[in-house]
Batch of 2 targets.
Target 1
Amino acid sequence: MEFKTFFTTQIIPSFFVAVACIAGVMGIVGVYAQPDASLGYGILFSPLIYGLLGALLQTVHYSSKELSPRQTILRQLVHLLLLEIGIVSLVYAGGELTGVGVALALALSIAAVYFAVMLILWINDKRTSRIFNRALQELHHKHLPEEK
Amino acid sequence: MKVTIKRIADPQAEQVIIECVKENPDIKDIEAYVLSKGTLLSGMEDERFYSFRLSEVFYFEAVGERVFAYTKQRIFEVKARLYVLEDAYRDKFFVRGSKSTLLNLMLLDSISPALNGRFTAHMKNGEKIMISRQYAGTLKKAVLGGK
């Protein structure tokens, strides 16, 4: 696969899904953890920055050759690890990492968002395969006399 | 539609003649089906050449410079490049599943999602073949059309 195709078919959709998920998780956590917090407009950029970081790190999955299922799983884990390091480092650099507990909670949240994105994409693919299989049966029914 | 079968002795002279008022999509489907059934390929197995029907091929696979045709129980090496086979048999329901495979849609049982936007093709002989994300769109288009 060319990198341009990889960028448009994988990185861009992942960016939007990640931004939506991060904004959702931030909202839910915020409502329960700090319901009275007053935040500036700057906070709106957070999901975009983190989403961009996550999507760009997805280049880990790029390969001009076909990856085996094992290689794919390995790259998923490397991707998650890089995300954890990248995001925790960004938060630490911003001076918002107040302790180990916060760092652990953040790491868990990142993993939760990561698996949520994977689950959403998988559910979408499951739906696609259901539609595909139905159409395939119709195609067989139409063209294979023994299936009529 | 009336069907007449006339028995002949020479296998080389076997043919199907379609008599129709107009070439509508049904006629085209019958033509495509007959062509896929009738196409004979030759391939090598254990240094001997054999003939086999295209309709028996579950998939073609390119391994390096060599291309293999997988039937239910046998594997033949065919002397053709994968892209040539793809062009030649596109109208006979052969579609790319990945950079190295060409699948027979008529012998594809179903697909299921795999990791990272890829799909697994479950062939009717029980084999599982990876469909890459790059070619998943082409495969979907071949089956779903504009849906």
Target 2
Amino acid sequence: MQTEIKIKDKIYKIEIFEMEKGLLKVNINKEDYFFTKNKLGELISVQPKSKIPEIDQEENGIVLDGLNEREIRSPIAGIISTIDVKKGGEVKLGQKVVTLIAMKMENEIIAEASGIVKEVKVKESQFVNSGEILILLD
Amino acid sequence: MKIERIKTISSTNQIAKELAQKGAEPWTIVVAEKQTAGYGKERISWFSPKGGLYFSVILPKSQIDDLQTLTVLAAFIVAKTIKDNFSLEPLIKLPNDVLINQKKVAGILTENIIGKEVKVSVMGIGINTNIDEFPQGLEKIATSLKIETGEEVDNNKILEQILKGLKEQLKTISQ
């Protein structure tokens, strides 16, 4: 599928390909972006292996499970209730970082990697969309 | 179904979450005679003296949409159980509360722990069953089944009926 969209004064040429079942390639002005569905059925961005230098490039394929673990993203849309980490603080694997009130439930978002908090991208009481970056880890 | 009965507990949801993270099976139920730090949505304190029914259910891993539906259905199950057992007309205040005569009689709080996927889900239910009186301030907004009926409530019977209802409903919404 090929289309053009205009945002402000800039025109973006967009092509969407289904690479294989569940994997979409979106070409925007000759730059490729890849998307797949996560286990919650939501569209998430994945990285092609060739763009991640530390990963073996021999296969030159796509990392399907490519959610970047240095980016903690909101799995669902909702309101940030509490933020349990601070910039510069240490985060351990499985540690709660944010509580999100969403879908009439309280959801503790946990880190899937250890690291130091590089940036807290959200504030308490803020509405976040699904897939939005909450915390960046170093 | 495994029922863990504890006399005094901080919060059944808190303990259920800890047990689930340590690998407790789905449909493990944590029941307390009283909670010292019971809470509802946004951590608002839930008055939990001895006499009430306080329990949390470790739910099977489910899609988040199903968990949301189950939370709403739980309010209906609690209201129906009250209606079936007593001559009372409970009203549901979606998604979390059940009221009698405009006063809160039960509350539900589902909590999830989510990484890349839903890792743990627990549903906590608090019902004011055999509570004789509420502290000043709460008496205007809360009531109990005992206050409304003048009769002692069989907590185990109510627990059993609600758990049966939850299990049946989850089957109908889960793949």
